[in-house]
Amino acid sequence: MLPNSKNEAADLATKALFLYKRNENIARRQNALERINFYRGNQMQYLEDTLKKRFSPDAIKNMQPEFFNITEMVINELATIYNDEPTRELIDGTDQDKEIYNEIIESSQINAFMRAANQYSKLCKTCLVHPVWRNGVMKYDLITPEVVDVVQSAYSPTEAEAVIYSVAYDDTNPQYDKFTANGIDTMALTGNVYVYWDKKKSILFSYESKNNADIADIRKQLGNPDDKNPYGVLPFTVLRDTYEFKTFFTESGDDLVATNKIINEKLTELNYITFLQSFSV
Q1: Are 152 and 161 in contact (CB under 8 A)?
Q2: For the purposes of burial, counting CB atoms within 10 Å of the CB of 4, is it exposed (0-12), middle (13-18) or buried (19 or more)?
Q3: Are 197 and 229 in contact (CB under 8 A)?
Q4: Which spans in the chain are helix H?
Q5: Average pLDDT rounded to a whole number, residues 215-231
Q6: Is residue 144 within 8 Å of residue 5, measured between CB atoms?
Q7: pTM of the model as a whole
Q8: CA-CA distance, 43 to 94, in Å (whole number)?
């Protein structure tokens, strides 16, 4: 961690900006973004980009692009833990404890959330779960790796000393539906809001670039004017698809999207060949 200063929050935010702009972190997030796009069926832009590299503009005009979402099919087939809803029971709790527990189960939609968490951890290999108290009820946020970076522990590379993630502008919910193809890094978009957590601090900030320097703008948090972490620990649970012992983020699973790309290309080429044979072009 950086030493304390008169503006510790700005120091930490600047450190976070430096971390996520490292090339290897950008590449990892872009890879995760591509997987999520394929899983959600946002594949057309990737297919069109590939066709532009292999065919002339005149040939592309006569093509019928086609994609088949095997990524979603395979992931949903593998993520089976929550296909059947689990039975949960609070043991040795008071009537009030049971009432609170049941309210949390209902408000958080825990079964639907964990089904999605299982799917995305299969897809991205590493995800974070962040329990939050929002609008008077308990919720869980699923933070996928295309929007997050961590400060790895100096003693254990699979553990984090700090977590930094981006959220939609003026919205502290990290779940959003807008994903961009072509390798655009969601965390490098000026105007986004970023959240930094370590064991002592919880900081909300944005930034702007001036004279080749990133200037952090610390935003006020309602009910937390001193930017303190009230828990004293990182409020995240790490979900991994496999046991990891070298890095925080598991780096595997490129084969599924690569195969999906080939299938899309071959289906489109087959349509084109059929067109040429049908009309004797």
Answers
A1: yes
A2: exposed
A3: yes
A4: 8-20, 23-39, 44-54, 57-61, 70-78, 95-108, 110-124, 254-279
A5: 85
A6: no
A7: 0.83
A8: 51
